[in-house]
Amino acid sequence: MAGGGDYSSLQQPSGGYAAAGDDGMASYAGSQNPPSPYAAGGPVASTITAGLGNGVNLQPSYYYDGDVDLGWNLMAKYPRIKSVRIEIEMGREAVAERWIREAVSRKYAVIATFHSAAILTSDQLLMDDPNELFKAAAWWVTNYSSLSKAGEFTINLMNEWGSHAITPHDYAATYNQAIATVRSVYDGPIIVDLPGFGQEAHTAALAVVGKSGQTLKDPKIILSAHVYPQAFSLSRNRAMTTADLDELAATGRGCMLGEFGDDGSGGKTPWADLVKYAKSMDWPVFGWAWNGDGGRMNMIQPVPFQKVSSTAYPYTVGPYFQPIYDLL
């Protein structure tokens, strides 16, 4: 696997990931090797993420054309869930209005994420295509007005655009153009996933601080990392560590963990430890996934989401629930 990244982030209804194991390490020591050359993290830019509490990911686009019961009645029993990150595939705009409306009416903070399953392939060829990110930006221009009528949300411009191998220059230049497009309709914070399936912190940090000939310059962005057992930095040639989170924090931009979980890969990255460290820096963290993973990384059962009906579906929590919920 290139860079160890094409695992659970291939978020479509195919897969099969082993159930979660333990919930992490007792201290951060195992994830601080090598030690960070950056200043210790902390709530440097936390004000931009202040409205986002910890939460969970929902991926409903691929089941019953998105016309599904999202399990709100069960979610309400678990107060650590303050926010939801909802991934929206092109063609699901109308039903996404309902998803957002239901979440907002229940007082959850909402992140709405443009998602393209087609680009998430093991060869990663489409992940660096600027036109894929520009397509997402144009989609927001077309759909933000109608979606925002359902309630307030934060835009996550696109899920996991940019491969492990993308350069800081190309990452910054492409995002600058895409963000400028979105700014024609939206002036709030924009969440930007790190490249490399959310793992290339060094690439994103270089893009923000402008050491690549291009600077990712919008001041109202939130850098979003995705952490799993095989989370790997190709640019650093090692597994992700707390040094990567410190490097993101040192950019002065808002930061978060947009996804975390156990893909069952047996990878050595101490994913739960990194979640705890991110929380110690006051970053919002989002577990993958409430439901919709396509494999075993689903907190509730049955899998997948069930078709919406006149009565709420009686979901229950599954064995994967507690290890994720305990980290919120």
- Assign a percent range to the helix content: 25-40%
Which structural category do the helix and sheet elements fall into?
Answer: alpha/beta
* Average pLDDT metric: 89
Global geometry: globular
Strand-residue proportion: 15-25%
User: Total number of β-strand segments?
Assistant: 14
Give me the side-by-side strand order of the main sheet: 1-3-4-5-6-7-10-11
What's the order of the H and E elements?
EEHEHEHEHEHHEEEHEHEEEEH
Brief summary of the model shown:
Helix content is 27%, strand content 18%. α2 crosses α3 and α4 packs across α6. The N terminus is likely disordered.
Give structural notes.
The protein has 328 residues and is an alpha/beta fold. It has 9 helices and 14 strands. The strands form 4 sheets. Strands 1-3-4-5-6-7-10-11 form an 8-stranded parallel barrel, surrounded by 4 helices. Strand 8 and strand 9 form a beta hairpin. It is globular. The two termini are 29 Å apart.
